[in-house]
Batch of 2 targets.
Target 1
Amino acid sequence: MRTARRPAPAARPAPEPSALPRRAPLRAHHPEPVLDVVVPVHNEEHDLERCVRRLHAHLGETFPYPFRITVADNASTDATPRIAARLAAELPGTRWIRLAEKGRGRALHTAWSRSGAPVLAYLDVDLSTDLAALLPLVAPLISGHSDIAIGTRLARGAHVVRGPKREIISRCYNGLLRGTLAVGFSDAQCGFKAVRRDVAERLLPLVRDREWFFDTELLVIAERAGLRIHEVPVDWVDDPDSRVHIVSTALADLRGMARLGRALACGRLPLTALRRNGGDLAGRLPADLARQAVRFAAVGLASTLCHLLLYTALRPAAGAQTANSLALLVSAVANTAANRRLTFGVRGRGGALRHHLKGLGAFVVALVLTGGSLAVLHRAAPGSGHRVELLTLIAANLAATLLRFLLLRAWVFPTRPARRTTGPA
């Protein structure tokens, strides 16, 4: 008897990543390491042994769970690999890995990706941060309260000893982050952070940087997705032997901010994969881009009509450029207020002044485009009539509208992150 062959089933598209489960505390009795502390190093033969032995002794005396210390050596050319291998052989719960390329972000990405511990942390080899803050750092992750924990030198309660140059650079960098990417955390650069492994598994594939911007990129993505970030004020003493190249690192950070800002503005990051089932993130994730675009387009059409009507009324008495500036200013203020409520769902008066001041920044962009278009028109065709001016303004407004939407979404009304929490050092 011959049996008919069934046709092969059509290939199904890959499913979307499932949501993160609700946070839960770790079991009190855990046979495997609960915490994996990574120490990224490059040519640290003078500080490595002192750091690892002090860290191992501190964890052995104060940490109530099994732990592991991982020395992540990225392309050292001195005695660092030999020291790391010897420490791994002597100290229980210590291991080391060797990377062929430099990059602190690369070392953390590799070490965290290979670890099976439910809580992953790292600290700088110079031990600038007092180790007394380590247990407060990881406790909210172990208890299930938070997703990420960071040490901060810029929050109330922190005690910091460092020179004015590094203090100014640090505050300027974090201020720039707040101004451009609207972050809510206070200190992106402190080398003292921890993350739950289930969160790291989703975040690490989204983080592109493998150098110093790695920390900032990871935190910005996590915050935009609504994950809870816990901050711990730390006692911190500057390392006078720091070998960070300030200029090249600053330029790389600026390029990273620009790249990350574009990715967020264009919706290229799958932030919904970081949603937690039934957790505290409901309503805090970014609104659907298509729905925002439709509402923004409707508001933009109304404000463009307002702009053209006001321009037509003011043009005879004020001239083309003055009429365009006044009409655009009025319509821009109305546009920001309408988008604030209708497109981005912001209610109440909180932050209204800040939103309108930032909205004026978008107004300047539109003014340059529309005013420049009129200037080019009058120079190229001095006798053009009112109808040609209106068509020119419409074309310029279309370009300005696209830029305005990107600015409003990424800068003026960014996704509001979950409220960060701060614990005592």
Target 2
Amino acid sequence: METPGSQSSLHRANLERVVRAVRLAGSLTQAEIARTTGLSAATVSNIVRELKDGGTVEVTPTSAGGRRARSVSLSGDAGIVIGVDFGHTHLRVAVGNLAHQVLAEEAEPLDVDASWVDGFDRAEHLVGRLIESVGTVREKVIGVGLGVPGPIDVESGTLGSTAILPGWAGINPREELSRRLGVPVYVDNDANLGALGELVWGSGRGVKDLAYIKVASGVGAGLVINGQIYRGVGGTAGEIGHITLDESGPVCRCGNRGCLETFAAARYVLPLLQGTHGPELTMERVVELAREGDPGCRRVITDVGRHVGSGVASLCNLLNPSRVVLGGSLADAGELVLAPIRESVGRYAIPSAARQLSVLTGSLGGRAEVLGALALVLSEMGDSTLLLGKGGGTQAPQVLSSVR
């Protein structure tokens, strides 16, 4: 037993401070670790040596400011983590390690109108195939991050009623996948994972407050406040798609009228163009045609951007984020959709909040959610067993911060 305040407990605390700094940043030089933790250079050097000898970290030569330095990162062969993203039309799986490398990634079409059993069968098979492809075994998996396009009840862990996954309401996706794979599973909705993915790897890097707006079959937002995903007491924070724009507007799937989703989501937007562009039209094709100059598609995308901008303005007035990142298929429209979003923000947001806001498209595209799922499982795993090294059941760090 370590006595609080004893030399052994102080040493343990310093070890954890160094590990925490490295896992949050991805990799740091020893000088950066000293600045981050407040520990002396000599103490950091001794701790890094101890962690390296125990197999917890890897140390590689690098340079900083033109000088030779040593880069410290978590060990890459201590275990692997899995990200699984269920979308409206796809299933995507990624495998990563603790050195922040994505080792394998694959996506395949998925019909969400099929049974949830079929969906999980497909996920289990794809996970197994990717684990085999990277030359490892299932026993090396230390956790799985799972994304679903619907609200997760915080208390029960069940998927709420949703028209996006109509046959999945009421199931517990965490328990189902954990039963199949035999490892801890951490689940969140796709917008939150998109926010986490962009925060860690993409257009959200370097900021602590952002909103990730995903416009696809539905409209949702992942909110990051002070560097952390904000979920709300019941897990439904970020349902920007159900901000009311017109009380006399179309009836939304939530039962209200005139929600933002009824003016921006693909299920409501595509019928506006299918009469002239054919019944097989997709949102991806609308964006493609708009970029080619199709007047009808450009008009629809402009209108969608204006409506999304109204919702973003409300977020600005309430939360005052420094950055909004647009994801989903609409993001490929670039300035065609960003310009009307910015225009609405300038019109409806408090001027000081609008001035401080940057609106960008996501840089990860369709990978944002599955990379966010990797970051999720790493963020939910604890620190303490990292100090046990390779022989002691190493667990994952808190945030996957970079891909090298």
